[in-house]
Amino acid sequence: MSPAQRMPSEGDGYYLGRDYVSSSRLNLMHYLWKDVLGYSIHPDIPVQDSEDFRIADVGTGTGIWLIDLSRQLHSARLDGFDISTDQFPPKQWLPENMSLHTLDILKPIPEEFKGKYDVVHARLLLPLVKNNDPTPVLKNMFSLLKPGGYLQWSDHNVTTWSIVTASPELGSSKVRAMIEETDKLAPSKLNWLSQLPYNFIKQGLQDVSHRLHPPPPDLRLFLAQVHCVFAEEINLVAMGSNGADHGVPSNRRQIQEAAKEAQEGAAIQYVFECTVGRKPVA
Ligand SMILES: C[S@@+](CC[C@H](N)C(=O)[O-])C[C@H]1O[C@@H](n2cnc3c(N)ncnc32)[C@H](O)[C@@H]1O
User: Fold this and answer.
1) 81 lies in which domain range?
2) Looking at residues 141-149, what average pLDDT do you find?
3) Which of 103, 125, 139 to mutate to test the pocket of ligand 1 (most atoms within 8 A of CB)?
4) What integer best gives the mean pLDDT of the chain?
5) Residues at CB less than 6 angstroms from ligand 1
6) What is one Pfam family matched by this protein (predicted)?
7) CATH of the domain at 89
8) Number of domains the chain is built from
9) Which DSSP string corresponds to 15-49?
10) CA of 260 to the centre of ligand 1 (A)
11) 228, 253 in Cβ contact below 8 A?
12) Whose CA is nearest to atom 12 of ligand 1?
């Protein structure tokens, strides 16, 4: 696959791709996330399947989270928002109660969407949090909520990563090398996620809860393989823009070696986290 095919996201500073491999990775991640969390919407959040109940998914990507939710919610209105339409399915193929919109969550929210949502959901938004500060994203998500509405934000805590091996004698140097290279392109020394509950409170959200979901050992290999796809994607996107600066072409062999090591029993692992809060009623 040529680098040109893997760099559809140039222009908005997004360091991942938006082609069919990127979409497949996101859709697979959706089901792995659902398995690890055990829920789509946290059970503390009351949900009604009625026409006046509205759910927004910010940075929706392929819209997979809402499409999956539509299997249970046939009347509630489901709106996905993303800065790019590149990964949206054709609107004719969406569930009847779902629609997708272009929206930059870092810019002022159009009046038509302000204060309209009972639930605002966000997942895997690490790439759009700038300067280790989710405040601008949080403020805008807060403004989408109805009074009494709930915000749910789930993400990888990249600061918690470690390497785990299936038995002590197994090597993990290739996996480590791949992670260190990827780190140059997608910064991982970010502590905003651990601080997210405090930031929810600072923005005025109430009843804030924060849950840690360490993935179980039987998903380690699959998540490690997705991580290799992620590493390859981020390298190819960089190769299309500033790859030369990062010595990117040499990384592809390194990723394949890391994938082989993962298959033998060496994996990166990190905790999945979910923070929930409620906008005050008045
Ligand atoms: C890693 S994907 C996650 C997709 C989806 N939330 C999921 O869990 O499957 C991040 C998404 O954020 C979108 N995005 C990036 N910058 C954005 C912005 N400023 N406003 C809205 N969406 C943005 C990207 O286009 C991409 O679809």
Assistant:
1) 3-278
2) 98
3) 125
4) 90
5) 14, 16, 26, 30, 59-61, 64-65, 82-84, 87, 103-106, 123-125, 127-128
6) Methyltransf_23
7) 3.40.50.150
8) 1
9) -S--SHHHHHHHHHHHHHHHHHHS-SS-TTS----
10) 30
11) no
12) 59
